[in-house]
Specification:
CATH architecture of the largest domain: Sandwich
Number of helices: 5
CATH topology of the largest domain: Immunoglobulin-like
CATH class of the largest domain: Mainly Beta
Shape: globular
Number of strands: 31
Number of domains: 3
Length: 520
Amino acid sequence: MLTLIASTQSNAQEDATWSGQIACIIYSHCSTCHNDGGIAPFSLMSYEDAQASRFAIQHVVTNRIMPPWPPDPSYNRLAHERLLSDEEVSLIDEWVKADAPAGDLANAPQAPIFETNLEISQPDMELNLPIFTVPQDAGEDVYRCFVIPTDEDEDRFITGMEIIPGNRNIVHHVLVYQDTTGVPEALDAADPGVGYTCFGGIGSDGARLVSGWVPGGTAYFTPPRMGVFLPAGANLIVQIHYPEGSEGQVDSTKINLQLSDDMGLRRMENLPLLNHITSIDRWLIIPANTQQTFYQEFTVPFNLSITGIAPHAHLLCTSMTAFAVRPNGDTIPLIHIPKWDFEWQGFYNFRNPIRLPFGTRLHGIATYDNTAENPNNPNDPPQLVTLGEATTDEMMLFFTPVTFYFAGDENIVIDDSEHPDHHDDCQLQGTTSSDDQKRSESLKIYPNPFAHSITVESESTSESFILVISDLFGHEVARLEGFQGLRKIQTSDLFPGLYILNVLDRHGNYIRSSRKLVKL
């Protein structure tokens, strides 16, 4: 028997004010980027800032555009989610509809102070790449590699890396490798310019990927007791992609490292286990005026633990999904991004490492829209697009940090918080909150596993909900509107396998209590 908890809304939201609730929400979830030194285009550091931008805030918040978090939380809960609660969304909506009342500003929480916008503000190693000017006559995408000596005389582990692009307008992606072969140094010496040209790779078969950055990316941290090995004397090789149109512009990217001398840490490798070689039906070729879906599959050769995932594609992609099927048939959702956004890619940690026994099959799915209906299509009219590293080409990769499985890995906690911490522990005054202030409804789902039907039962009829069942591809297969009391859902048409049941409130807002259902 499954129990789903669905939070209802409070009447107190009608009286939302800046001082009582909205300042806490904005300072906690928005100001980290929306400050004078942040990456966002305008500041949200005062009532005046928020009041002036209230309609824009209302639009992006109620449509779940901001805070930016592309993964679907109903598919798999990930670590460090940037998500507003349904209550917070409703409060902002009601506040704007009420013409953004200030309340008693003397009682508002103090605005945060951002001495730095860096996530690793006191690095163990700070690496400044040389100043590079994209050649005026480049005329196409430029891939440039820079050799950065670490000058380390002892082995160490990298436990955190923050890549800070010097010019975000022209940096398409950054990949960082560690290398001890000496090959990149020779390539650098043979190239007369700063760094060396490195389209398609960095030129060394012995290099190991450490981490990377793509638009929307943040700092990467390894899980507890794990790290990426950095051998003594290794160089870091930094590949930066500058897209066509960057001619004459200047970049000076910086990297901050968090290091450990503890040689007892577990070694991790960042590998694209799902990649173009693992495609199972055809190569990544997308004819003009077509929508295409591609599939990848990889069989795990050892007992592994994976700690996160980083999907990567370009402008034509519209959705990406990955899941694993263990040898015993258990299906493990990894990530589903229903609305792919090239500008908001990221590296996502799981809340706990996931065990993949020998023989587990990893599956990757991505859909591409090469029609004029895709507003992100770089070609007008649409043109044939194939696999390639240029922005106007396409890619389909799922980078995954892996390590050999140790008993108990799945119990390591990367993040167990239900909601991001609030600034200075501020509270939403006079509204619903956790535990005894929340009114909730208990929903029972049975039987599970099920065959021809499932029954959904609520202990109260005071609220109605929307129930949605989706498959592992994120496709909705059943919906029950206006649920109250007790209802039976016929499931004879569903294929055997694993499904996800989500609960939405009567307004269609997602309530974070998804559960797995097994069809026999």
